[in-house]
Amino acid sequence: METKDILSRRGIAPSLTRLKIYEYLRAASHPSVDEIYQNLKEEIPTLSKTTVYNTLHLFVEKDLAKALFTDFSKNRYDIKDVPHAHFHCTECDEIHDIHEITPPRIAEDAIEGYLAKEAQLTLKGVCPRCRRQNTNSQ
Ligand SMILES: [Zn+2]
Ligand SMILES: [Zn+2]
Q1: Which ligand approaches the C-alpha of residue 98 most closely?
Q2: Ligand 2 mean position to 138 CA, how many Å?
Q3: Residue 36: pLDDT band with limits 50, 70, 90
Q4: Mean residue pLDDT across the chain
Q5: Residue 109 or 104, more confident
Q6: CB contact burial 46-57 (16+ within 10 A = b; e otherwise)
Q7: What distance in angstroms lies between residue 96's CA and the mean position of ligand 1's atoms?
Q8: What domains are defined for the chain?
């Protein structure tokens, strides 16, 4: 499906900026607002960080993207597709998709009195590349 149609189907007017941000988000690995802004500002001279933030917020609201909550200050975003876990490397700060492990499916009413909407699974540690580099430098 074309990006234009993906956005239209969710009731989002497919402006050039939105198309570019969606496509960047889909191709990149869990970018922050800042990363998206830095990479698209030349292509879209009118772009501001506020626009990137508002667009991501709209995607989240329309269920096209999700904000990843990690312990660093900047939110990172991911296309909402097949449920998958994440691995956050504390050495290089990259977030990798992990498909070997499925995040737990938790019923909305699993906890008395709460309405659970989503469960995310993020593993933390050292990614293979950083592990190799650590071994080489020792
Ligand atoms: Zn790493
Ligand atoms: Zn992911």
Answers
A1: 2
A2: 32
A3: very high
A4: 89
A5: 109
A6: ebeeebbeebbe
A7: 9
A8: 1-78 (1.10.10.10), 82-138 (3.30.1490)
